[in-house]
Structures are given as C-alpha cells and as structure tokens.
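hey so i finally got around to running the thing on that chain from the lab meeting. sorry it took forever, my laptop kept dying and i had to restart like 3 times. anyway pasting the input first so we r on the same page abt which one it is
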Amino acid sequence: MLMRFIKNSFLFLSLFSTLIIFLGCGNSRGVNSSSSDIVAFVNKEPVFASEVNKSIAIKARQDPFFKVTSETEKEQLDVIIDKKLIIQEAINRGLARDEKFVNAIKAFWEQTLVRDFIDYKKRQSAEYLYVTEEEINNYYDHLRQRVMFRVFKSRDKFALDKWLEKFEKTKVMDTLAWEFIGPVTYQEVMSDVLREAFDLAVGQVKIFEEDSLCYLVTVDSREDIQVQPLETLRKGIEQDILAMKERQMLDNWLKSQRKQASVKVLKR
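ok and heres what got predicted. didnt touch it at all, straight out
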C-alpha cells in the first residue's frame, strides 16, 4: 500500500515514478473504443476507461498489496491526465515534429516524448537549482535515525480533525485502518509527507495535507543508527537533494498546467 508510495522512485519520487511506470502500458485505446468509453477530457483530448483499467492492471501485477478502490481508480486517472498534459506541452514546445505514427510505434513515441520533456525541464532548472551546506548537514543529521511510521490517508479532513480531537483525549489509535511503513531511513523515504513527519516525536500524531489528500501520521518508533562520515556521503546527499528539488519543480509545473488546462472528468 503506502510502501509503494514512498519507494516508487529514487530520482523523480512519487509522482513521476508513477508516470514512468504507467508509460510502459502506452496508449491502451483500441479500435473499439467509443464515446461511451470516455471518462475524462484533457484540453478536449479524451481519456478512455480502457486506459485507466490497463493502468490499474499493471499496478496490480507490480504490487501484490494493491487494492482496486474508487480512490485508487481516481489516482490512476490523475496519472493519465498528468501524462497527457506533459505530452501536449512537449508537442507545443516542438519536441515532437510528427504525430502521424502508426499504433504499433505510438506507445514508444509517447514514452520517449515524456522522458525527453522531463529532461528538458531538468535542463531548464539546472541554472538555478543548487544545494546549500545547511541542507546537506540537515539531510546528514536525519540519516542517523530509522523510523517506523503509522499512516492513514483520507480526503475528509473534517473527519480526521474530529478523530485527532478525540485521540488527544483518549489516546486510542486502533479505531482506524492504519498502514505501517518501515522501519525506514530518511534516504529511503521518498514522500514529502513522510519527510515532513520524520521529526515527529514518538507517539505524536499530526495531519499533513498534500494536494487533495490528507494524511494522519504518527511515529511508532525511532532508533539511532551508524552512518558513514559526511564527506563519504556528500555527493550522494547532494544528488538526493537536487532530485527532490527537481521533483518539486515538476510537481509545481504540473499543478500550474492543471489550473490552466481544461480538464473535465465524467461520471462513470
């Protein structure tokens, strides 16, 4: 479940690792797709239910703990919408000169186009993304511990607020279907939410918001571990921090594109 949320990718972390995984399935629209199969439009380009279903099937094969729910269906639809936004922008930027591909090679073309666009955005950001000594030292200090998390996610912040209010009085946690993550080191955590939660005191519970989801997070345990000297790890730490900043830049760009784009999700 959430373990895949934090371990999907070393370079692009959650969002773009999910995009790359999805890209392996290419365009799942068949010749039999019809208007009744359309579940969304992205700038007038249709998204078909068959695309969502195939993305879910790939996820299920890759992750034995993956469950098909209305929530995971929406997550996969969001992945497809983001992919289409990237491809549309890549075409607008002139990264593709010819769209007249036969179906047999279109999937490969889309994979290459998305990767080329991500590289293009990285080259754009390379001029102003940098790592400070303070960031390196802070990252290194976090590597000295290993943490066990307990996480519950929901779109209903009001319900989580009420639960947290009750928890502060009763200290009873077992009323929710928690997911356990860890023990993990700071370097193994690829989720912004869990990076923010890494400094929580053991037993402390806090709500974190990311996009339209809310996460109830607590630290079950924390242990000190031995790490190599900073100078030995410095290069890898710098690369990790840059990767996080690149991911954040790409996330921000996609959010901006979402606001500008005409995205219409149809009721199924």
